[in-house]
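ARCHIVE CARD
Drawer: 12
Card no.: 0347
Subject: one protein chain, sequence and derived structure
Cross-reference: see card 0346
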Amino acid sequence: MGSDLVAIGQQYLASPREYELRFAVVMLMNYYNDDTYIDNTLKELNNVRHEGYYVKMAVAWALSLCFVKQRAKTMELFQNNELDDFTYNKALQKCRESFRVSDADKALLQNMKRK
């Protein structure tokens, strides 16, 4: 990824505007969840702070996809994170709804839900 794209991505990740921030989260989800980028992507997702519904849902969606593609690293994040309860629980729910997550993992994730 070129330095111009990194700068643009950081600009959107820092945006207070709901749909700009959602755009950045969806870009992370779609293009930056492989071995090269996953650590930074999870860090960025963990640091998203916005009260907008569509931002929270995008972060949850992104984390569920990260779980499918990078289970171990995403599980580490689920066990130690700074996510608000809504986003965290929604991410777990989206993982459990996925056909690409094992029944054993779905049961484990169900028990990790915050009350």
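Annotation on reverse: The CA atoms of residues 86 and 105 lie 20 Å apart. The chain has seven helices and no strands.
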